[in-house]
Every structure is written in structure tokens, then in C-alpha cells.
Write a structure and sequence with these properties.
This protein folds into two domains: about 270 residues, Aldehyde Dehydrogenase, Chain A, domain 1 (3-Layer(aba) Sandwich); about 190 residues, Aldehyde Dehydrogenase, Chain A, domain 2 (3-Layer(aba) Sandwich), CATH 3.40.309. The strands form six sheets. A seven-stranded mixed β-sheet has the order 15-16-17-14-13-19-20, with helices on both faces. A six-stranded mixed β-sheet has the order 10-9-8-11-12-22, sandwiched between helices. A three-stranded antiparallel β-sheet has the order 1-5-6. Helix 2 crosses helix 8 and helix 5 runs parallel beside helix 6. It is globular. The termini are far apart. The longest helix is centred in the first third of the chain and has 20 residues. Helix content is about 40%, strand content about 20%. The chain is an alpha/beta fold. It has 16 helices and 23 strands.
Length: about 525
């Protein structure tokens, strides 16, 4: 990715075609989408005409350009959203839900093309990651599309001579700022409930991954009225900041780093508008000595999100394993990861793709170096680098399983967002719970045991917003998702998220005396 904007010949605003035909050539699709925002139902270049490069992490080659969004673009997009929201909000909630569900059906027809495009721009493997994400996007719209009837208020027994009730109303214009690791899925969890609730949205895509979400926007605009969904590409200070600060944006939903989340929370506090913040984690996985070892090892592979290069907020980057089975667990885990194939994200044989950007690549390598320098630490490097000459410049990192680290190591305290985990031994259940909770984060956690009493106790005592027993699933539509402590504020992916975070409640009292 080239962070320096480039002045390019001004592209012509392009209206949406009547029907979008799926294409399986991600390079051609990236080229066709290059240089545009999506505003008011039309693909538009940046007001300045500037663009920035979109680079494949696997090859380090430029695959397209994105429009360079700035305050002027935000002003145009928010104005379009504000106009469109007036009529959108007047539609019945069930009608809006039907249209959002229809978006889900359209997205289902484009799963393969979206998977290939997001694999190209993010470096995530097609078979193990990108195709899964594209399917969940369609499912999220289908899920929320069926919840229009849940946007209801309550009657309040205040006075028998009065009718007292509450109603839920849309906020207006919602700003959504999304990350690069699962950009389509996390966008869906923000915008689908916002739309069903009657809001219009303005999304800022991640600068590393602007193209697949733009294609999603094209698909949505086959169904939605112009202006209800708008998408800008750009960088945080120039594009994200003006969205948060805009006087007509009534709510912001953000997924990203703690530091940026705090900046957004501060800006929103100055304006007294609500925010939802999903800010990452350092998720513990506890494996008791009575656990099914094979299942726990499979759960560690899935939970650490090795197929996503560890680039996940819920990655099980701290594994606490009972001392009795610690060595066997590490041996089996390394053997499993060694068998995983690292290579071209678009190759069906690939399990593990590339790190998303040079900046993230350098960050991961720096933390691996920090871990190796710790006294008593051992770095078990797994898998093998790609042999394809076309990938020689790609941002590939061998997964690392650390042993011998302590929970106060920087590798165990700070979010790396890479394929790096630490396996630490414990002697007692109480010790494991204490170690797991000894973190500034509280997004996800898991406990692996065949003892029901232990499992139930752990679900109550683990300080995390998303706790699982004997599994490490990714977030699914319908499951309330969000963290505690430094992992953020608010919930996503559930009916609760739509009701609590994308509507405002009004109390109505009618005096009939």
C-alpha cells in the first residue's frame, strides 16, 4: 500500500448497472473498482481526484487504487445519507428488513467473487478464510433482515387514565469505521442492524482493504435506495476523523486498535454521541489435565486463527495448559501447524496466507524478536515459507509457538495481531483463572475440560465478553459479541446490538382524561 496520495486523471462518476454479474477474476474486478468511493448510489472519484495504491501482500504488487477520502468527501457522503434517511426511516421496519434480507440473497450469489477479491487484497487464504468470510456476510444480512419485527417498544403501567408507551426510533446517520482483517464481515455486523433500524450509513473502509467492501456496496445498492449506504476509502486522520466529528453523524461504530478507539471515544464524548468500540484482545485458552487432548489441540489451531495469520481480535494468543499435559500439547500443536501450507492466498491448497501490510509484518517480526530474547524462552517455528518464486517478496511469517515465557512478558501482555502464541504451564485451576484474568483485555476466552463443574465455574469467573467451553468458534450471527476492560464498549452481531446501539428510545404519554 502506498500511503502517499497520487493525483490521477479524474474518473467519471459511474451509476450502478441494473444487474451485477459475478466475476471470478479478482484482478479484473480490482481494476474496475479502482479510484472510486460509493456515494448516493453512484461510484464517484474523490473530490480531490487523488488515489492511493492497493497492494497484494502475497506479491507486493499493486492490484488497484482506492479513492483518497478527505473531509470534502465526508461532507458529500453524509449529506447524501442525511437526505436518504428521511424516507428510509419512514418505511416500516419489516419492509426495511425485507430489503436487507434481499441484500443477503444478492450477496449469496457473489460469495465466490467476494472471497477471491478479499483474498487478493488482504492476503487471507481463499479456502480456509476468505470464502468463509464471504459466506458469513450474506448470512449476517439474512439474519438481521428477519429482525425488523423486533423494533418494538413497551407499554408502561404508569396511570390508568393515560396511555404510556415507549417507541424505538432510528438515530439518523451512522458512521462505521472498519478494520482490514475481516473487512466485509465486520462491516456487515455494523451496517445490517443499522439499516434495519432505519438509519443511513457512511462507512470508512480500511486503507489496506478497500475493494471487497466496495463491491459489497455495489451489490447492496442493487436493492437499497440511493444514499442509504455510502462508502469512503481513506486514512484515519483525513477521512475517519471527519466522520466522527461531523455534526450530522449521530452514532459511530468502530473496530480497531485501543489507541484509536480512545481517540474516537474522546471525540464522540465532546459531541455527546454514542459509540460502539471493539478494540481487540489477548484471549486466554485454558486446557485442564482432563481435557480431550486432540480436541484441545484442534481448538488451539482454530482459536489462534493461524489460517488468518493470527490477525484476529479473538486469537488465542495466551494458552495456559496444565503442566501434566503441557509438553504433549505443545508437541501435537506444533505437528499440526507444521502440516499447514503457507502460500498463494488464491491457491486452493493454501492454508496460511500473508501478513496484510509491511507495517504489520514489521510489528510481528519485532515481537518475535522480543520473545526470543526472553530468558528461558523457546520459539517453535512452524510450517514452511512458500517456495513459489512469484511470492519471494511476499509478507509471509512462519507461525511461532513460544514456550518458557511468563505471563508478564510483552509477548503475553500486548496484542501482536500475528501468528504468535505463547503456551504456559500451570499447576492448579485457581492459578489458571488468575493468569487468564491478568490482562488489560477482556474480549474472548475458552476453557477445555470434561468436568462440568469446572466449566460452569470458569464461564462465570473468566473476565471476557465471549466465553466458550471446548470450542473456539468465530463470532456468528445471533451471538452477542463484545468485550470488557480495554477490549471495548457495546455489543455486535445480535438482536441486542440492533436495539441498544442503533435506535433511541422515546417515551410517549397520552392523557385521555
Amino acid at each position: 500500500m502506498n500511503a502517499t496520495p497520487t493525483a490521477t486523471p479524474t474518473a467519471t462518476p459511474t451509476a450502478m448497472p441494473n444487474a451485477l454479474v459475478p466475476t471470478l477474476d479478482p484482478h479484473a474486478l480490482a481494476k474496475a473498482l479502482s479510484g472510486f468511493h460509493l456515494i448516493d448510489g453512484v461510484l464517484r472519484p474523490a473530490v480531490s481526484g487523488k488515489t492511493f495504491d492497493v497492494v497484494s501482500p502475497a506479491t507486493r504488487k499493486v492490484v488497484g487504487q482506492a479513492a483518497y477520502g478527505e473531509k470534502a468527501d465526508v461532507d458529500v457522503a453524509v449529506a447524501a445519507a442525511k437526505r436518504a434517511q428521511v424516507e428510509w426511516g419512514k418505511r416500516s421496519a419489516r419492509e426495511r428488513g425485507k430489503l436487507v434480507a434481499e441484500c443477503g440473497r444478492k450477496l449469496a450469489d457473489h460469495v465466490e467473487e467476494l472471497a477471491r477479491l478479499v483474498a487478493l487484497e488482504t492476503g487471507k487464504a481463499l479456502r480456509t478464510e476468505s470464502r468463509v468470510e464471504a459466506s458469513v456476510v450474506a448470512d449476517a444480512f439474512a439474519f438481521y433482515g428477519g429482525l425488523g419485527g423486533e423494533l418494538k417498544g413497551e407499554t408502561v403501567p404508569f396511570n390508568p387514565k393515560m396511555i404510556t408507551m415507549t417507541v424505538r426510533e432510528p438515530i439518523g446517520v451512522v458512521g462505521a469505521i472498519i478494520p482490514w482483517n475481516v473487512p466485509m464481515m465486520l462491516m456487515a455486523y455494523k451496517i445490517a442492524p443499522a439499516l434495519v433500524a432505519g438509519n443511513a450509513v457512511v462507512v470508512k473502509s480500511a486503507e489496506e482493504a478497500p475493494l471487497a467492501v466496495l463491491r459489497v456496496g455495489q451489490i447492496l445498492n442493487q436493492v437499497l435506495p440511493p444514499g442509504v449506504f455510502n462508502l469512503l476509502s481513506g486514512f484515519g486522520p483525513e477521512c475517519g476523523g471527519p466522520i466522527v466529528a461531523h455534526k450530522d453523524v449521530g452514532k459511530v461504530s468502530f473496530t480497531g486498535s485501543v489507541d484509536t478507539g480512545k481517540i474516537i471515544a474522546h471525540a464522540a464524548a465532546d459531541r455527546l454521541i454514542p459509540v460502539t468500540l471493539e478494540l481487540g484482545g489477548k484471549s486466554p485458552m485454558i486446557v485442564m489435565d482432563d481435557a480431550d487432548l486432540d480436541k484441545a489441540v484442534d481448538g488451539a489451531v482454530a482459536g489462534m486463527r493461524f489460517t488468518r495469520q493470527g490477525q484476529s481480535c479473538t486469537a488465542a494468543s495466551r494458552m495456559f495448559v496444565h503442566r501434566k499435559i503441557h509438553d504433549a500439547f505443545v508437541e501435537r500443536l506444533k505437528a499440526k501447524v507444521d502440516k499447514m501450507v503457507m502460500g498463494d492466498p488464491l491457491d486452493e491448497r493454501t492454508d496460511i496466507g500473508a501478513i496484510v501490510s509491511p507495517q504489520q509484518f514489521e510489528r510481528v517480526q519485532r515481537y518475535i524478536g522480543i520473545g526470543k530474547a526472553e530468558t528461558g524462552a523457546k520459539a517453535h517455528e512452524c510450517s514452511a515459507m512458500p517456495k513459489d518464486a512469484a511470492l519471494k517478496d511476499g509478507l509471509f511469517v512462519r507461525p511461532v509457538i513460544f514456550t518458557g515465557l511468563k505471563n508478564d512478558s510483552r509477548v503475553c501482555r500486548e496484542e501482536i495481531f500475528g501468528p504468535v502464541t505463547a503456551v504456559m504451564a500451570f499447576d492448579s485451576y485457581e492459578e489458571a483463572i488468575g493468569l487468564a484474568n491478568d490482562s488489560d483485555y477482556g474480549l474472548a476466552a475458552s476453557i477445555w475440560t470434561t468436568n462440568l463443574k469446572t466449566a460452569l465455574d470458569a464461564t462465570q469467573r473468566l473476565q471476557a465478553g465471549f466465553v466458550q467451553v471446548n470450542q473456539n468458534l468465530v463470532v456468528q450471527p445471533g451471538l452477542s459479541y463484545g468485550g470488557v476492560k480495554q477490549s471495548g464498549l457495546g455489543k455486535e452481531a445480535s438482536a441486542e446490538a440492533m436495539l441498544d446501539h442503533f435506535t433511541q428510545k422515546k417515551t410517549v404519554i397520552m392523557n385521555l382524561a
